């Protein structure tokens, strides 16, 4: 829940802004005053206790921005968004310099408003917040190994760290995490969950997730690009808000797509792991992706570059790769065709079928890097009351 103070120029403008807030899916409490930015001092106390100040004013000028700057300086956790027709580059620049987060014009960009709200909601939950640590896994180009890594990280966290883990497959193309996770189809998918928007609650969520093992669930991807495209950022927002409370670790396989929903998932994530390979095409995509992360406001410290199928003799070595990407490589994973193929044939992640392999061990180290042990509160495994064997019967070797 975030607290918003809105100064609106008219009832009509306020209604348009409220429609955007509603569409964002973020829970909020709103206090509205009508007038101009000149009224700001009259509401100083209320504004300072809000999380977000929205000022809708057609006549923003330098003294008005100074006033906003002073308000922001006196309330370090306050965020501010301005709405004004045709903001000039100079006005936008000056506003950003005094600490305004976003300057928007009419008609409002619903997506931009939703992203600002999602970020503030994340911040509010803060470092001391309870709930899952969320990590998004992104692919600089198709086939980098993101899904294989996501599935194995999820399994490793669930098996070795006794955490409640959820993997969300947000791949837009032919989502395939369920194939690597278990040799049975998921009961329902993200698309089913979103198609029953009005009934969305914890029970429907449970019905749509696949129980892979006692403390590991998978929310399978739509498997159909057309259905995947129907997922709205607001729907995803509701899902992420729910799962943060229910799990200790959440992994989101965003694949290669950067669209309104995956951008929202990134905003919700505590860290982003971008997977690349030592190939010019992956580096080209990786560099662009890192630029976009920066433009979206994700600090470099939030992003971890992982080199998959690492070859120490490859022409593109680590220093060259880091120079090209302009970022440090956080981790490398070896190539291991045999373990990968064997795991796929058996329908289990390789961290279970080849746990001593270099690749499984590398994934264990990556899990510790992305979810530092002890960083999350260990929660009681509520849904573990009917704890079964480690592997579902049909996944046991030789079954
Ligand atoms: N370290 C590895 N060693 C051997 N094979 C690997 C390794 N990592 C991934 N692979 C193989 O590479 C292929 C692509 O992997 P995966 O599907 O995980 O990539 P992706 O980035 O998720 O692809 P997509 O863009 O289709 O979502 C798969 O056949 C997978 O088994
Ligand atoms: Mg994939």
Can you put this structure into words, describing what you see?
The structure is a single chain. The chain is α/β, with parallel strands linked by helices and 399 residues long. The protein folds into 2 domains: 2-125, Rossmann fold; 133-379, P-loop containing nucleotide triphosphate hydrolases (Rossmann fold, 3-Layer(aba) Sandwich). 42% of the residues lie in helices and 19% in strands. It is globular, with a radius of gyration of 23 Å. It binds adenosine-5'-triphosphate and magnesium ion. Magnesium ion binds at residues 146-147, 171, 255.
How is the secondary structure organized here?
Blueprint: E1 2-8, H1 11-24, E2 28-34, H2 44-48, E3 52-56, H3 62-74, E4 79-83, H4 89-97, E5 102-104, H5 110-125, E6 133-139, H6 146-161, E7 165-169, H7 177-181, H8 190-195, H9 202-208, E8 210-213, E9 216-219, H10 225-228, H11 233-246, E10 249-255, H12 260-268, E11 271-276, H13 280-295, E12 303-310, H14 318-325, E13 329-334, H15 337-346, H16 350-353, H17 358-370
Parallel strand pairs: 1-2, 1-3, 3-4, 4-5, 6-10, 6-11, 7-9, 7-10, 11-12, 12-13
Antiparallel strand pairs: 8-9
The structure holds adenosine-5'-triphosphate and magnesium ion.
